[in-house]
């Protein structure tokens, strides 16, 4: 992982004593931001997006072989890249990531038959699958990567169980699910442990996907995610923690960071969540006040779009 030298950040730590104590008002996020415009979704949407018993989906890193039966010259082999797209002869660019084998086979058959071939049955073989696992980090007893079972899936509650359960100061109602969409944009969802364990709402025990990250914040902590060198959960000292200090604790920004598109998400007293864009680059240069963060805040720094 690339590391950015945090000298500038350290120099700024004591430079904002007169800064306002609060974030600017919440406002809609830009439509092209890597964090979706609605950063927290109802867990029911997660469940409906991936019904139990669904066939596995192709993932970035899978090595696939595309066979057009009767036409060996069209056979192609490729490892699915991060954007999920591969280029095939006579068809062009095709999205594989996030789709089932059957879906892609049907699309390719129709594409070949509509343009070039009378009959083009297609088979897709996953010859070298990527390791399928989800990650649990933050305030759990055994943070780490946990593989999906050979048969069946892995749910929110099962992943927490594999990780040994919560630490004492874990925020059980603030668990974050970080999921990459098929367009490579990452989305944030807030999950409720109480809804599953105490209220018995089985629909809230959402199924996970390969690459999902469950992050368990601390009740008296700030969570820093995204394009920083050491993402994590950081306790708030007695004097408080400002945005620049949170970035310093995360060992600075990576060279791919887009700090002026950073977002702070905060849960309000009523339970709803708001997302507040902050111009972090200008804050770090001393051009804007350095806001004081609150316990439970999540500071997300996206990668540059270019």
Description:
With 306 residues, the chain is α+β, with helices and mostly antiparallel strands. The protein has two domains: 7-52 and 132-301, Outer membrane lipoprotein wza fold like; 63-128, wza like fold (2-Layer Sandwich), CATH 3.30.1950. The chain has seven helices and 15 strands. It has helices spanning 7-12, 43-49, 101-115, 156-162, 193-197, 243-249, 280-284, and strands spanning 63-68, 76-79, 85-88, 92-95, 122-128, 133-138, 144-147, 175-180, 186-191, 213-216, 221-226, 232-235, 262-267, 273-278, 298-301. The protein is globular and about 70 Å long. The two termini are 19 Å apart.
Q: Sketch the major β-sheet.
A: 5 strands, mixed
C-alpha end-to-end distance: 19 Å
Which geometry do the CA atoms define? globular
How many β strands by DSSP? Answer: 15
Q: Strand percentage, roughly? A: 25-35%
Poorly predicted spans = 1-21, 26-39
Helix percentage: 10-25%
CATH class of the largest domain: Alpha Beta
The order of strands across the largest sheet is 7-6-10-8-9
Short account of what is shown:
The protein is an alpha+beta fold and 306 residues long. The protein is built from 7 helices and 15 strands. Strands 7-6-10-8-9 form a 5-stranded mixed beta sheet, covered by helices on one side. Strands 12-11-15-13-14 form a 5-stranded mixed beta sheet, with helices on one face.
